[in-house]
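Subject — a protein and its fold
Encoding — discrete vocabulary of local shapes:
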Amino acid sequence: MADLYSRKGKLNDAYQLISTMTTPTGTIWSLLLSACRVHKNVDLAEKVASKIFEVDPENIGARVLLSNIYANEDEQKKYLLYGHSERRAIAFGIMSTPAGTTIRVIKNIRICVDCHTAIKLISKIVGREIVVRDNSRFHHFRDGECSCGEYW
């Protein structure tokens, strides 16, 4: 049953089920740890790994799997911030200019949907105006909104 929950992505249900077993083995916990990797649930993976290390401290496979989960999370973070040049430029601008300064970025290709959405959120969070010039227009981001009105 825990395997079915895990495969369906119902990781918390699987965790609760395994937790109610009288003596869950490292193998059973490892099944859930593998599902945490597939479904990218790092927080639960850490809990599950600690359970594995309690019942099976010599479980090298769990250590390797947890390491892979951390590596995947790092790759996702790199992609979210560093995958697109405008996000990198904005992050650098925020770090290297005084609060309230308008950040201006110029690029020669069209801004992608993910970056457009991210920059709207960034402008709201940091409370700055961010101006991005792509190959067709200026985008003025302020308070979580863009001047293009989502028509670009």
The helical segments are 2-7, 11-20, 26-38, 42-55, 60-82, 85-96, 113-126. Strands lie at 103-106, 130-133, 138-142, 145-146. The chain is about 60% helix and 10% strand.
